[in-house]
């Protein structure tokens, strides 16, 4: 995963949506889509659902999955098809790590910043105002992070539902939430390049390069080695058992230690991203109280590193590749290894890709303050996005299937 600064944001970046500038930047978007993300074709499905909601004058929140840094390019291609610009709630770190020109371009495309670790009322009010009053949809990624899980939805946070429900309480128009699934498929086989990265990974930990093993086996062998190293670091010894259980146990141990150290009470049933968010908020507040040269900052910085490790581990479900060892799933896992272990700023894209973006039936947002209703709306959105993903997956042949089909015709 990408390392980002986690601290109090230096400023707020408002949206400056400009349909004219969106047209001006179209060639740049297309160039970056192809050259940086190797994304050639984008298929838009279910556009009629979104068009109907907009034609009815409804305020619309779009909730896509977030498996790739190319997602915004996919959605803006859909926006061009729909002839409808979009607003994006964007992590402040994206602006903070960009140049002034890059930030301005994002603002022209409707992006505005949000502090995901804090209580960002300015971003919240801006989002509510967009949904209540403006003619264009608001995009919120409920997963909150790019986990490189193209075929599996991670638990949605409740922020998107909270914004939609807050807007609905005082809106003069109906508010709906549109589930959206973005799915990527390789057009060309990236296996030769993946094998090269796998070799670098094995050599990095002084392992013999195992070309005699399948890529699937090498991935799991390497993952087992990594978790064993972290177990020794944090627990004093490596453990045995299924990989997914070991990852979950280590994550829970780290979070429990940090919660005790910082006096944070953790409610039952919180998902790991929410536990991390609560602890980060506490650590950031303590860092803000200290001078930059204060030696007391060092253990707090280590705590932030531990929280980042937990998020990294959360992005590895353990059975993602074994459940369906497609080239897409193996590539995503190696992409994460490249970012997490080789410290690449962002994983290289190997092979050209296509994308399918599918919009589902809009969900009407109830007018209520009931938190249980917000949790249920979030659950429904998560289920519907996964269903859209599964339907897309079932209808799209893989690289391996296309290769076999070509072979059968020869």
What does this 3D model show about the protein?
By secondary structure, the chain is an alpha/beta fold. It folds into 2 domains: 19-187 and 351-409, Glycerol-3-phosphate (1)-acyltransferase, CATH 3.40.1130; 191-340, no CATH class. It has 17 helices and 8 strands. The protein has helices spanning 19-24, 26-35, 47-55, 71-82, 92-96, 100-108, 121-133, 159-170, 191-204, 215-235, 243-262, 272-288, 297-314, 320-323, 327-340, 371-395, 399-409, and strands spanning 39-45, 59-64, 87-91, 111-114, 138-139, 175-186, 353-359, 363-364. Strands 1, 2, 3, 4, 5, 6, 7 and 8 form an 8-stranded mixed sheet that branches. Keywords: Acyltransferase, Transferase. Pathway: Lipid metabolism.
List the SSEs and their pairings.
Blueprint: H1 19-24, H2 26-35, E1 39-45, H3 47-55, E2 59-64, H4 71-82, E3 87-91, H5 92-96, H6 100-108, E4 111-114, H7 121-133, E5 138-139, H8 159-170, E6 175-186, H9 191-204, H10 215-235, H11 243-262, H12 272-288, H13 297-314, H14 320-323, H15 327-340, E7 353-359, E8 363-364, H16 371-395, H17 399-409
Parallel strand pairs: 1-7, 2-5, 2-6, 3-4, 3-5
Antiparallel strand pairs: 6-7, 6-8
The level 1 CATH classification of the largest domain is: Alpha Beta
The topology string of helices and strands comes to HHEHEHEHHEHEHEHHHHHHHEEHH
Domain tally? 2
Strand content: 5-15%
Name the CATH superfamily assignment of the largest domain. Glycerol-3-phosphate (1)-acyltransferase
Fill in the CATH topology of the largest domain: Glycerol-3-phosphate (1)-acyltransferase
Oligomer: single chain
Number of distinct beta strands: 8
- H/I helix tally: 17
The N- to C-terminal Cα distance equals 42 Å
Helix content: 40-55%
Mean pLDDT: 93
Largest sheet: 8 strands, mixed
Structural class: alpha/beta
CATH architecture of the largest domain: 3-Layer(aba) Sandwich
GO biological process, one term: phosphatidic acid biosynthetic process
Protein name: Acyltransferase
Keywords: Acyltransferase, Transferase
Pathway: Lipid metabolism
């Amino acid at each position: 995963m990408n390392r980002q600064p986690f601290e109090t944001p230096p400023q707020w970046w408002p949206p400056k949506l400009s349909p004219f500038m969106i047209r001006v930047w179209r060639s740049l978007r297309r160039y970056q889509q192809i050259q940086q993300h190797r994304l050639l074709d984008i298929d838009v499905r279910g556009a009629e659902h979104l068009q109907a909601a907009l034609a009815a004058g409804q305020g619309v929140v779009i909730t896509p999955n977030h498996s790739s840094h190319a997602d915004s390019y996919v959605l803006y291609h859909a926006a061009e098809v729909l002839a409808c610009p979009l607003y994006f709630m964007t992590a402040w770190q994206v602006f903070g790590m960009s140049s002034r020109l890059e930030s301005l371009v994002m603002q022209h495309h409707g992006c505005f910043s949000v502090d995901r670790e804090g209580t960002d009322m300015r971003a919240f009010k801006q989002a509510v105002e967009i949904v209540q009053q403006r003619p264009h949809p608001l995009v919120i990624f409920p997963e909150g992070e790019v986990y490189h899980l193209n075929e599996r939805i991670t638990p949605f946070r409740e922020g998107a539902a909270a914004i939609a429900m807050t807007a609905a309480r005082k809106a003069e128009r109906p508010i709906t939430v549109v589930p959206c699934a973005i799915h990527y498929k390789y057009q060309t086989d990236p296996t030769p390049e993946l094998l090269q990265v796998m070799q670098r990974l094995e050599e990095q930990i002084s392992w013999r390069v195992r070309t005699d093993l399948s890529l699937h086996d090498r991935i799991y062998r390497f993952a087992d080695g990594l978790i064993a190293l972290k177990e020794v670091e944090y627990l004093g010894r490596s453990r045995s058992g299924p990989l997914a259980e070991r990852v979950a146990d280590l994550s829970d141990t780290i979070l429990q230690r940090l919660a005790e150290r910082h006096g944070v009470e953790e409610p039952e049933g919180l998902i790991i991203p929410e536990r991390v968010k609560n602890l980060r908020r506490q650590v950031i507040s303590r860092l803000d109280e200290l001078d930059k040269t204060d030696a007391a900052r060092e253990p707090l910085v280590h705590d932030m590193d531990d929280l980042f490790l937990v998020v990294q581990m959360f992005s590895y479900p353990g059975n993602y590749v074994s459940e369906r060892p497609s080239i897409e799933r193996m590539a995503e896992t190696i992409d994460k290894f490249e970012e997490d272990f080789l410290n690449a700023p962002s994983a290289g894209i190997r092979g050209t890709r296509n994308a399918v973006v599918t919009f589902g039936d809009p969900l009407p947002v109830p007018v209520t303050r009931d938190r249980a209703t917000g949790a249920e709306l979030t659950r429904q959105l998560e289920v519907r996005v996964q269903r859209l993903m599964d339907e897309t997956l079932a209808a799209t042949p893989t690289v391996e299937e296309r290769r076999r089909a070509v072979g059968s015709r020869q």
